[in-house]
């Protein structure tokens, strides 16, 4: 089968890139099914200058807010029409189970609709200035903004960034992950058809060390918004800071999920399975550190083992609607997960279930697991005489379907263990005691805390980290929109000429009081 070739999207049209060709692999089979042009430094400079000129021309940046709102609403309509082609492609490039993508991708229209509604309803402040002055605050777009998106949720995370940035009137350039660039490229045609002017939206695939570096270093870029790992996020932030540009970063996570005795254990086990194994554990808020009140530990472990084995038994081709979980994204990611699990098993831990790369064929549909990067959903606990809390995997982000389970005796201990991490993105609490839910959620250091649920994501709800290793700033909500703007204060004097001459002539002859400030 001939691999389909994809180009860059620049200035409202497809253009060939002048760097290397990027092979796009199906993680379930190891086959290269497409290729994509990477953007060279020259391609990056051209795209940024086109975006900058478009911004200065005002065709989008100065368009009335209601016009931009109508374009975002039209984007939602067109995106819905393209779902039958977008979803299978998203499945193929990510390896995510199609049942996940059929649930996730249709929700993306909510982001465009939300920011369209925000544009129509947002109120601007008029400030109580002293004297005959009228002072109002406006929000104006920044200019060219660069967005760097990861492999795990290509469309979701791209849309979460694109919608508020375009709503604010910026010119947007997206660099998708080199592992999953294809569906983001297809957004170019959708946005053009919806009415986004040529030059206001571009997609430049490429590798981080080359294309990404050229983008974030460019002096015309006024904001960078990245989702990725902590190391990369810090490196990008240092470059962006040197240009005095704005920066938002959603980075690493090692989310605790705390189960108290007061929880409904069956409901909590379902929540753990979803929070831990959705997207094969490749999410920044995956519940990877499960903390269970000691009195209920054995009951929960028994039920969790049964649930996890059920998931494993029903794994197969990601395109099979009955398959529960797909592979990891790449051989590199598989090796990382294997290394962390093997280290835990060799030291302090043991596998209650899982702990190995999958081989053989699927009992569900005959998929050959050995061709892809499938890893068993895994639950790790302390071995006899060991302490799982001393392992690397307790602290390091594995980004795979692996969870660590540990016990606690008191609420105070649970909070201490939950906060025992450099990360602070997401956290979960399971209890039917409402007072306890409020009490504990206030003390957990995380930007997002879910109670009796996990991984809920709404365009109106801010999404960001509470500790530096998890990033700076927030996606979603009014916060994200405002982060793509800068405030502009306008003060108008409506004093008469006589009043102005009497109070505002600072250098007039003679004595007398004059205004200052």
UniProtKB/TrEMBL annotation:
<dbReference type="GO" id="GO:0004029">
    <property type="term" value="F:aldehyde dehydrogenase (NAD+) activity"/>
</dbReference>
<dbReference type="InterPro" id="IPR029510">
    <property type="entry name" value="Ald_DH_CS_GLU"/>
</dbReference>
<feature type="domain" description="Aldehyde dehydrogenase">
    <location>
        <begin position="19"/>
        <end position="489"/>
    </location>
</feature>
<keyword id="KW-0560">Oxidoreductase</keyword>
<dbReference type="InterPro" id="IPR015590">
    <property type="entry name" value="Aldehyde_DH_dom"/>
</dbReference>
<dbReference type="InterPro" id="IPR016160">
    <property type="entry name" value="Ald_DH_CS_CYS"/>
</dbReference>
<protein>
    <recommendedName>
        <fullName>aldehyde dehydrogenase (NAD(+))</fullName>
        <ecNumber>1.2.1.3</ecNumber>
    </recommendedName>
</protein>
<dbReference type="InterPro" id="IPR016162">
    <property type="entry name" value="Ald_DH_N"/>
</dbReference>
<dbReference type="InterPro" id="IPR016163">
    <property type="entry name" value="Ald_DH_C"/>
</dbReference>
<comment type="similarity">
    <text>Belongs to the aldehyde dehydrogenase family.</text>
</comment>
<dbReference type="Pfam" id="PF00171">
    <property type="entry name" value="Aldedh"/>
</dbReference>
<feature type="active site">
    <location>
        <position position="250"/>
    </location>
</feature>
<dbReference type="InterPro" id="IPR016161">
    <property type="entry name" value="Ald_DH/histidinol_DH"/>
</dbReference>
């Amino acid at each position: 089968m001939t691999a389909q070739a994809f180009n860059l999207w620049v200035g409202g049209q497809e253009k060939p890139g002048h760097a290397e060709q990027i092979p796009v692999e199906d993680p379930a089979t190891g086959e290269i099914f497409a290729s994509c042009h990477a953007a060279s430094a020259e391609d990056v400079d051209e795209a940024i200058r086109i975006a900058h000129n478009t911004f200065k021309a005002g065709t989008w940046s100065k368009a009335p807010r209601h016009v931009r709102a109508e374009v975002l609403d039209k984007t939602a309509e067109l995106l819905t029409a393209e779902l039958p082609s977008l979803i299978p492609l998203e499945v193929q490039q990510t390896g995510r189970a199609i049942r996940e993508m059929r649930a996730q991708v249709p929700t993306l229209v909510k982001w465009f609709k939300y920011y369209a509604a925000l544009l129509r309803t947002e109120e601007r402040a008029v400030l109580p200035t002293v004297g005959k002055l009228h002072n109002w605050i406006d929000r104006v777009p920044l200019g060219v903004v660069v967005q760097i998106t990861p492999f795990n949720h290509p469309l979701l995370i791209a849309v979460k960034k694109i919608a508020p940035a375009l709503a604010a009137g910026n010119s947007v350039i997206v660099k998708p992950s080199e592992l999953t660039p294809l569906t983001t490229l297809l957004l170019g045609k959708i946005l053009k058809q919806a009415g986004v002017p040529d030059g206001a939206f571009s997609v430049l695939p490429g590798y981080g060390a080359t294309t990404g570096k050229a983008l974030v270093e460019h002096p015309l870029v006024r904001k960078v918004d990245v989702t990725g790992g902590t190391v990369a996020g810090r490196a990008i932030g240092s470059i962006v800071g040197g240009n005095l540009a704005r920066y938002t970063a959603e980075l690493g996570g090692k989310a605790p999920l705390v189960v108290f005795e007061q929880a409904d254990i069956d409901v909590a086990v379902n929540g753990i399975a979803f929070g831990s194994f959705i997207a094969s554990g490749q999410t920044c808020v995956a519940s990877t550190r499960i903390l269970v009140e000691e009195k209920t530990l054995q009951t929960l472990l028994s039920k969790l083992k049964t649930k996890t084995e059920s998931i494993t038994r029903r794994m197969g081709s990601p395109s099979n609607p009955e398959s529960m979980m797909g592979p990891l994204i790449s051989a590199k990611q598989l090796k990382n997960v294997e290394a962390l699990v093997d280290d835990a098993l060799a030291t302090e831990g043991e596998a209650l279930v899982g702990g190995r790369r999958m081989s053989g064929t699927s009992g569900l549909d005959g998929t050959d697991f050995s061709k892809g990067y499938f890893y068993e959903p895994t639950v790790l606990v302390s071995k006899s005489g060991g302490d799982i809390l001393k392992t690397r995997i307790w602290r390091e982000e594995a980004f795979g379907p692996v969870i660590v389970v540990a016990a606690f005796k008191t609420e105070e201990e649970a909070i201490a263990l939950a906060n025992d991490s450099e990360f602070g993105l997401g956290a979960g609490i399971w209890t039917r005691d409402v007072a306890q839910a409020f009490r504990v959620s206030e003390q957990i250091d995380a930007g997002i805390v879910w109670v009796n649920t996990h991984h809920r994501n709404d365009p109106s709800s801010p999404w960001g980290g509470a500790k530096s290793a998890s990033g700076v700033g927030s996606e979603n909500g009014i916060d994200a929109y405002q982060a793509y703007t800068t405030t502009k204060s306008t003060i108008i004097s409506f004093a008469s000429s006589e009043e102005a001459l009497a109070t505002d002539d600072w250098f007039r002859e003679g004595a007398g009081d004059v205004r200052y400030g």
